[in-house]
Amino acid sequence: MLKFIAFLFSLVFIFLSPTTVGASYNVDDFGAKGDGKTDSTHAFLDAWTGACGSSSPATIYVPPGSYLLGRAVFSGECKNNDITLQIDGTLVAPSDYSVLASSDSWLSFQGVNGVSINGGTLDGQGSALWNCKSSGNSCPSGARSLTFMNSKNIVVNGLSSID
């Protein structure tokens, strides 16, 4: 009988204990458009601001679609060390390589801790730059697609990068 009462108290304790439910930030809710044409940079940065400012684990969700992004810097320190960027679509760089000509990176995470990037594709749309370089003309060096600077506990899983 004593074991049964202890079991019941355990169940009550488990069900009444506060659980940590992570915050979720869908980039579409911040104005992003998955049409591959509309600049969604500000929407992504706004979603990052929300996730970074959350005291609980947070997920930034990128639905299927093609999201045009200019140069974006996702900066820490954040209030939590568990931010997941779940990409079910494609992040697309500007097709005009001169837009990123003065940048060393297209997407950059700086001073973050505990960021995971899962899935998705980065499309650097680099064919025009590669054509410029192969023609022997003077061309910019080109931006790296993704960089992490002064960051730790980074996980990248299932992310593809093309062009």
Automatic annotation (TrEMBL):
Any Pfam family the entry gives: Glyco_hydro_28
Alphabetized GO MF terms: polygalacturonase activity
Matching InterPro entries: Glyco_hydro_28, Pectin_lyas_fold, Pectin_lyase_fold/virulence
Secretion signal, residue range per the UniProt entry: 1-23
Gene Ontology BP terms: carbohydrate metabolic process; cell wall organization
Hydrolase as UniProt keyword: yes
Compartments (UniProt record): Secreted, Cell wall
Alphabetical keyword list: Cell wall, Cell wall biogenesis/degradation, Glycosidase, Hydrolase, Secreted, Signal
Keyword Hydrolase on entry: yes
Protein family per UniProt: Belongs to the glycosyl hydrolase 28 family.
Protein name: Polygalacturonase-like
Gene that specifies this protein: LOC104591191
